[in-house]
From TrEMBL:
InterPro entries: GH, GH39_cat, Glyco_hydro_39, Glycosyl_Hydrolase_39. Keywords: Glycosidase, Hydrolase, Signal. Belongs to the glycosyl hydrolase 39 family. The keyword Manganese does not apply. The active site is at 215 (proton donor). PANTHER family: ALPHA-L-IDURONIDASE. GO terms for molecular function: hydrolase activity, hydrolyzing O-glycosyl compounds. SUPFAM superfamilies: (Trans)glycosidases, Glycosyl hydrolase domain. This is Beta-xylosidase. One of its GO terms (biological process) is carbohydrate metabolic process. It comes from Spirosoma validum. The lineage of its organism: Bacteria, Pseudomonadati, Bacteroidota, Cytophagia, Cytophagales. Residues 1-30 form the signal peptide.
Length: 573
């Protein structure tokens, strides 16, 4: 099965770059290696249910970047990589201000008051944000927050000026406090939902998610747990009065792996099921989906970045466990509202050396490995995972490759975006990747990846195609030999199939390495930018190949660099 055929390389070398070559069911797509290959077995006859597009969810702190030049460009690219509508979540949709964008800040001026305290609603900027999404076929996760200045119990200071170089700088100002008047707050929410229905239509708004606040278990919410619960009751009632079929949820707590988050999360869930509703006086409160966050924890060890994917997966698993403990809520969709390698997207590599993973392929391989395990964790707990929001976008007019947790820099796509392009190319039915590899989801959750590398795969199929995503991930970002991989697929049709092999590594689909080869220019020329844009797209490792299947089986041999990701897409008539 793992037989090597060096002579194939002489054959391949004689073929034209764009030609289709006919190869036997066992062949090599990369250099011959004397090391024992990692044997990955995919059985296309073993259906594991839908491969839900949980990856087609994105978000960011700065809502006003949405309609700026590079923001629109990136949203267009994100929308095109998915067969289904992409959901987008942003902060600060009700924050008072002039709409000027800044790091970890945004505003819409949706609510102000006149001299007599009468509400003034202005949906201009909110609509501009949502219009940008909807024009691209995207859907909002409409975050109901934060507190308008005129409504805050402690309004001053209100706008912050965050400086990432200052440690411990407090950004949680007047916008983070409870309302002076819960009835006025509820009317603001009611008017927003009502306006949305009038502008976009009932059917469209029914497809959105409305959620209350962000991370209320930390200083994003300056009230108590009970005050958040009260706010939720008023908010849910207001949403449902405006549109009874609207979807409302929460509580968007931070990682449930922490005791503080668990306590808040469980108090909220108890109220949803058994609490006295602050508006109706009845037991319980409406909820249509459940949200929480999950983050990893990178650090610098012996001069290199060491990730901690296990920490993120433990947060996810604990969140699933808590939801599963409530039988009446277990079936509800779960949205991991922020699901990332660490916590601060706007904390650049300049002042946070542990974030040096972000520009290169380590972010790509981490994303592939972690998303694949989210499916397994949800299945193991028997919960309904609908989406996992990647909290990364772009930061307008910042230095090139500064090391933010973003998907593009100055309009040029970074390697991580190509993982999502790969996900978007995968068919919709998940199939079995057989056990026996170094890591399964449980070992990754419990130990992270500190011993051998995690060389593993996610596979899916439909009537006329199959796809296998393979990654070579390790928590420690240190040089390592390429991993030889022997990928065996069973259940293929007994005919010739076409193989496209896409790759993210140091040479392919990697604008960062292309930029470094240019000398890391601070102000690239127009010609250089064009080259970087091309390098940022998903690229094929080699020309398409024709593979003859024998008895429903094909074996694909290739090498995969550390922190590299491959997508092998097979198609047939």
């Amino acid at each position: 099965m793992n037989q090597r055929k060096p002579n194939l390389w002489r054959t391949l070398a004689t073929l034209g770059a764009g030609a289709l070559s006919f190869l036997p069911a066992t062949y090599s797509l990369a250099q011959v290696s004397e090391e024992k290959p990692v044997a990955i077995q995919v059985d296309l006859t073993k259906d594991k249910g839908p491969l839900k597009p949980i990856w087609a969810w994105f978000g960011y702190d700065e809502p006003n970047y949405t309609y700026m030049k590079d923001g629109k460009k990136l949203l267009t690219e994100i929308s095109k990589l998915s067969k289904v509508p992409v959901y987008v979540r942003v902060h600060s949709l009700l924050v008072t201000g002039d709409g000027e964008a800044a790091l970890k800040w945004g505003s819409t001026n949706a609510y102000t008051e006149d001299a007599n305290g009468k509400p003034i609603y202005n949906w201009t900027i909110v609509d501009k944000i949502f219009d940008t999404f909807i024009e691209r076929g995207m859907k909002p996760i409409a975050q109901i927050g934060f507190m308008p200045e005129a409504m805050s119990t402690n309004p001053q200071p209100y706008k912050h000026k965050w400086d990432p170089s200052q440690k411990g700088y407090d950004i949680f100002t007047g916008w983070a406090y409870p309302p002076k008047d819960y009835t006025k707050w509820a009317e603001l929410v009611h008017q927003w939902v009502k306006h949305s229905v009038q502008k976009y239509g009932q059917k469209e708004v029914e497809s959105w998610y409305w959620e209350l606040w962000n991370e209320p278990d930390i200083p994003y919410w300056k009230g108590t747990t009970e005050e958040y619960i009260k706010l939720y009751d008023y908010t849910a009632d207001a949403v449902k009065r405006a549109l009874p079929t609207a979807r409302i949820g929460g509580p968007e707590v931070t990682g449930p792996g922490s005791e503080k988050s668990q306590k808040f999360f469980k108090a909220f869930m108890e109220h949803v099921v058994n609490g006295k509703n602050y508006v109706t006086g009845k037991t319980g409160t409406p909820i249509d989906f459940i949200t929480f966050h999950a983050k990893g924890a990178p650090k610098v060890v012996d001069g290199h970045v060491q990730m901690n994917v296990g920490k993120q997966l433990r947060d996810i698993d604990k969140g699933f466990e808590i939801v599963a403990s409530y039988p009446s809520l277990k079936h509800l969709p779960i949205i991991i509202g922020e699901s990332d390698p660490e916590g601060c997207a706007a904390c650049s590599e300049d002042f946070n050396p542990q974030n040096a993973y972000r520009n290169g392929t380590m972010y790509s391989s981490y994303t592939a490995a972690s998303f694949a395990r989210k499916y397994d964790l949800a299945q193991s707990r028997g919960v309904n995972l609908a989406g996992a929001v990647t909290w990364a976008f772009e930061f307008e007019n910042q230095p090139w490759f500064r090391g933010f947790r973003d998907l593009a820099t100055n309009g040029v796509d970074k390697p991580v975006l190509n993982v999502f392009r790969m996900f978007g190319m995968m068919p919709t039915n998940r199939v079995e990747v057989k056990n026996g590899l170094a890591y399964d989801y449980a070992r990754l959750r419990d130990e992270s990846v500190r011993a051998e590398a995690d060389v593993n795969a996610l596979a899916s199929k439909d009537a006329k195609s199959a796809a296998v995503m393979v990654w070579n991930y390790h928590d420690d970002n240190v040089p390592s030999p390429d991993a030889p991989v022997s990928l065996r697929l069973n259940g293929l049709p007994n005919k010739t199939v076409t193989l496209h092999h896409y790759r993210i590594d140091q040479k392919f689909s990697n604008s960062y390495e292309a930029w470094k080869k240019m000398g890391s220019p601070k102000t690239p020329t127009a010609e250089q930018i064009a080259q970087l844009e091309k390098a940022g797209q998903l690229q094929q490792l080699s020309a398409p190949e024709r593979v003859q299947v024998t008895k429903g089986e094909a074996i694909l041999n290739f090498t995969l660099p550390r922190q590299g990701v491959s997508l092998l897409k097979l198609s047939w008539d």
